[in-house]
Amino acid sequence: MTGTVLVARPDxxxxxxxAGPAIRAVAAHAGQVxxxAGPxxxxxxxxxxxxxxxxxxxxxxxxxxxxxxxxxxxxxLMELLPDxxxxxxxxxxxxxxxxxxxxxxxxGVRRIxxxxxxxxxxxxxxxxxxxxxxxLPEAExxxxxxxxxxxxxxxxxxxxxxxxxPSIVGPPGYVVVHPGTTAPARAWPPERHAEAVEALSCExxxxxxxxxxxxxxxxxRVAGRHGVDLGGMTSxxxxxGVLADACALVAGNTGPAHLAAAVGTxxxxxxxxxxxxxxxxxxxxxxxxLGDQRAACRDTRARVCPxxxxxxxxxxxxxxxxxxxxxxxP
Length: 330
Fold this sequence. Notes:
- The radius of gyration is 20 Å and the shape is globular.
- The strands form 2 sheets. It has a 6-stranded parallel sheet with strand order 3-2-1-4-5-6, sandwiched between helices.
- It has helices at 13-18, 20-27, 42-47, 71-80, 98-107, 138-148, 190-202, 216-223, 236-244, 255-262, 277-280, 311-314, 318-328; strands at residues 2-8, 30-37, 53-56, 86-89, 111-115, 126-128, 174-178, 207-209, 228-229, 246-252, 267-270, 287-290.
- Helix content is 33%, strand content 17%.
- The mean pLDDT is 95.
C-alpha cells in the first residue's frame, strides 16, 4: 500500500469526471488520494469515489480565464499541497504536464507520472508517450497514466460518482434536456432546444430542462409550456440525482453529459466537432451522436464558432432528437 498520492486534474467538471477510472485505480493501492482541482472542477471532484480530499487551485496554464503567475499564487499552491509520496498529473492532448511537474518537484514529490511527448528531463519519473493521431477516449488516456505508474489496470468499470440524493422530479422515466454549455461553439441553438422539448412532450415524454443559476433565462425559454424548468434549482449532486432517474439526457459536449454517463443514463449528444468526439463523447453508456462531425470547424478547439451559421449543429432537427431518444429508451 502506497501512502498519500496526489492526482491533479485542474480542469472543468467533465474532465474531472472522466478522470474517475484512473482515480479509482490509484485509490485501490493508496493510503490517501488527494485530488488537485480547479474552481470549475471542484464540485465534480467531491463526487468521485476514491477521493479522500480535494484541494483547489487555479492553474495559469490550464484555466480558461488564467490568473497571472505570481510568487503569491504559486506559494498558495505550495501551502495547499500535501506531503505526497507520488503524484499523477492528468492532462488532455493539448495541455502540458511539465509546469505543474516542476512545481511538484520543488515541493518535494519524489515520483511523478504524466503523459509528455515533449522531453521532460528530470521532471517526470514515469513518462507516458501517446500517439496523438489516435483519438483515445479521455477516460482511457488518463487510466493509462495510472497503469504506467503501477496503479492499474483498475476495476474495468466506466465513470462513477458517489450515490446521489433522490431526484427532485416526479416518477422516473423522464427526458432531461440541458441546453447550456461553457463554450458557445458547442451549443445547439435555443430555439432548436425549445422545438425538441415540445416534440418530445408531444411524443408522450415528461421533459425536464436543467441549467445553472446563470442560465435561468435560457432554461425558461427552452422549457416553455411543455417542459419542467429546473434552471438554477440543482447543485451538482442534485443534478446527478435528477439524471439518475432519467431515461435519457439531451445535451451538448458539456459536464452534465459526463455526469449522466457516471450515473448510467443514455445520452443524445449534440456534439460540435471543435474537439474530437472520439476523445470526449459520453463514455461507457449508450449514446447517439448528432451533429456534422466533418464540418469546417472540426478540431479547431474554438470556443466561439468560426463558421457563419454554426452549421455543424444548427442543421440538427427536433425530429432527429426525438428519433434518437426513441432509439435509446427501451
